[in-house]
Amino acid sequence: GITRHYTFNIKHHNVTRLCNSRSILTVNGKWPGPRVVAREGDTVLIKVVNHIAANVSIHWHGIRQLRTAWADGPSYITQCPIQTNQSYIYNFTITGQRGTLWYHAHISWLRVSIHGPLIILPAKNASYPFQKPYKEVPIIFAEWFNVDPEAIISQALQTGGGPNISDAYTINSFPGPLYNCSSKDTYKLKVKPGKTYLLRLINAALNDELFFSIANHTLTVVEVDAVYVKPFETDKLVITPGQTTNVLLKTKPYFPSATFLMAARPYFTGQGTFDNTTTAGILEYEHPLGHNSHIKQLPLFKPTLPPINDTNSVTNFTKKLRSLANSKFPANVPQRVDRKFFFTVGLGTRPCPQNTTCQGPNGTMFMASVNNVSFTLPSVAIIQAYFFGQSNGVYTTDFPNNPPVPFNYTGTPPNNTNVSNGTRTVVLPYNTSVELVLQETSILGIESHPLHLHGFNFFVVGQGSGNYDPNKDPANFNLVDPVERNTIGVPSGGWVALRFLADNPGVWFMHCHLEVHTSWGLKMAWIVLDGPQPNQKLLPPPSDLPKC
Ligand code: C2O
Question: What function does the entry list (predicted)?
Answer without folding.
Answer: Lignin degradation and detoxification of lignin-derived products.
